[in-house]
Structure formats: C-alpha cells, structure tokens
Specification:
single chain, mainly alpha, rod-shaped, transmembrane, transmembrane helix, membrane
Amino acid sequence: MHGHESEATAKTFYDSVTVDMLYDSLTSIYYGVCFGVLLFGLRLILGAWIVTA
C-alpha cells in the first residue's frame, strides 16, 4: 500500500514536471519568435527609412 502511494506521487510529480518543462519551452519558443519578428520588422523599417531619407 505504501509503495503504491509513493508510486502515485512520483507519477504526479513526473507529470507536473513534464508539463512545466513543456510550458517553459513553449514560452521560450514563443518569445524567441516574437523577438525575431520584432527585430526583423525594425530592420525593415530602418532600412526603408534609410533608403527614403
């Protein structure tokens, strides 16, 4: 009985860790993409501004 209990706890711990890691990697990917798009847009705007100036 006690062994089964600790097994269940380990499983929940493992599940929560996996979800947290997945969430962290997804957020970092999301921010990375946003940052890249932002930089790309700034470069385009600056390039166009320099060309037209």
